[in-house]
Design brief:
This protein has about 160 residues and is of the alpha+beta class. Strands 1-2-3-6-7 form a 5-stranded antiparallel beta sheet, sandwiched between helices. A two-stranded antiparallel sheet has the order 4-5. The termini are far apart. The site of cobalt (II) ion has 5 residues, from α3.
Amino acid sequence: MAKVKIITGADNEVLRAKSLPVENFDSGLKKLIKKMREQMKEAKGLGLAAPQIGENLRVCVAVLNYDTSEEITVPMINPKILASGDDKICDEEGCLSLPGIYAKVERWKEIIVEFYDERGSKHIFQLSELNARVVQHEMDHLDGILFIDRIKNKDTAGGVVM
Ligand code: CO
């Protein structure tokens, strides 16, 4: 099988575009998801969004319950956050499209996300902690947002602002 390269670069056009909703749950979509699962696994990521392999479609795959007996990889099509809790938490993130960059990013601690699977069935998941973080990170990709955009006080990292 042909290898697909993960697109990198904070200024890349495809990574910065707003992706379009999936309308046809066809064999092309299944192929795309299969490719995304393989790429994510090969790159050892916890998630991957379609724009990262060159497709501006609202599709991502996310590893949930990472490193537990319940670990699963879930493809999410046209995901939408229906609700979030009141709390945000700050934790370190990286991105396969920004190799070597890691930073603390604030995210909702809990979210309720609605999405479709590759057969077109709707699911609603309540997620927290790392599961919620991964999905928020991947969903940002669908709107052309990278985690570095969400770093606070970029210019004063390690210092205080007065
Ligand atoms: Co990413």
